[in-house]
Amino acid sequence: MPRSLNQSSHDPQASSRGYTLSVLLVMLVVAGTVTVQKGHLWAPTQLNREREAELIYRGEHLARGIALFRQKTGRYPTTLAEVEAISPRIIRKAYKDPMTAKGEWTFVYNVPTAPSGNNEGLPIVGLRSKSNGNSIKLYQNKSLHSEWEFSALDPRLGGQPGQQQMPGGQQIPNSPQQGGQSQNSNNSENK
């Protein structure tokens, strides 16, 4: 018997499909919300990882440039602009510190810093970040960005700390400030 238009029809399968569709829609909204919230937590961590990788690249690049500058000129530079200006070019550019807003580096000098704090004109052998933030990654077993030292004296970066020379070709003996070992430490190792 055919149904008349005035009779109300109630299909149990149709309401079941509607309920399932509603539950699925709610689950998708919840999953999307959770994903967005986790994305906000993940993004800063990923950004810091990328900035740390950039810090390592830039610091090692500049340290290699300082080592090459010394090999070409027989002296260490007093500014990064000197390294950038040498021809033919030995660095792409005098990169800025990616961990700080101003991009300024803390320089590592070949001689002790003056008591006045004036470092102008002192020979630069390396650099460090000015950021005192904790790192996600360890670099040379250091966990603060400001402790990550990129030095031209580091043999991994092209430096030869045991073979430093003055401009005339005369060799300078190692000193503890220059990354070398003192005679006493060598004698104690041989005993």
Key terms for this structure?
191 residues, alpha+beta, three-stranded antiparallel β-sheet, 40% helix
3D architecture notes:
By secondary structure, the chain is of the alpha+beta class. It contains three helices and five strands. The protein has helices at 12-73, 80-85, 183-190; strands spanning 105-109, 124-129, 134-139, 142-144, 149-151. It has a three-stranded antiparallel β-sheet with strand order 1-2-5. It has a two-stranded antiparallel sheet with strand order 3-4. β3 (134-139) and β4 form a beta hairpin. It is rod-shaped, with a radius of gyration of 31 Å.
List the helices and strands and how they pair.
Layout: H1 12-73, H2 80-85, E1 105-109, E2 124-129, E3 134-139, E4 142-144, E5 149-151, H3 183-190
Antiparallel strand pairs: 1-2, 2-5, 3-4
Question: Could you report the average pLDDT, rounded to the nearest whole number?
Answer: 77
Poorly predicted regions: 163-191
Report the major sheet. Answer: 3 strands, antiparallel
Helix-strand topology string? HHEEEEEH
- Put simply, the count of helices is 3
How do you describe this structure in short?
This protein starts with 11 loop residues before the first helix and ends with a helix. The chain has 3 helices and 5 strands. It has 191 residues and is α+β, with helices and mostly antiparallel strands.
